[in-house]
Amino acid sequence: MTENNKKHTHEYYMKQAVKQALKGYEAKECPIGCVIVDNSGRIISRAYNKKLTRNNPILHAEIVAIDKACKKIGDWRLNDCDMYVTLEPCTMCAGAIVQARIRKVYFGAYEPKSGAVCSCNDIFNVEHGHNHSVEFEGGLLEEECSEIMKRFFKEIRIRDQRSTN
Length: 165
Fold this sequence. Notes:
The chain is α/β, with parallel strands linked by helices. It is about 40% helix and about 15% strand.
């Protein structure tokens, strides 16, 4: 059986998202990674944040991954797809996820300052009047996902201290 035909575990897909986050880390981007998986278990897009390198505030990992997935399947509807992302999506990304009709989102770390799935807002809530409801599950490989973010921001603080001294 080829990799494209296997059904992997949720942890496998999240580890693929973590690999994307690490690519972002290497590119000096906020290290958030994302993969989108179709209903056969095939990863149809992989992405990390490109906001800083492309000087574009909307290029979050989720947005880049949705764009790639839509281009790959030739449709804006990702009804039978699941998303794995290392950090709870923000309001912009949660809105795009609803619009893309993604079936379920699995995320790693919770985002207490701007998480729009359950921490600060609940954009996926059907009571908001959406015609599509997105399921979600948070905390998948939470510690690993959180640690990458902590390490990244610690390095930024150290760098900033050095530049002011």
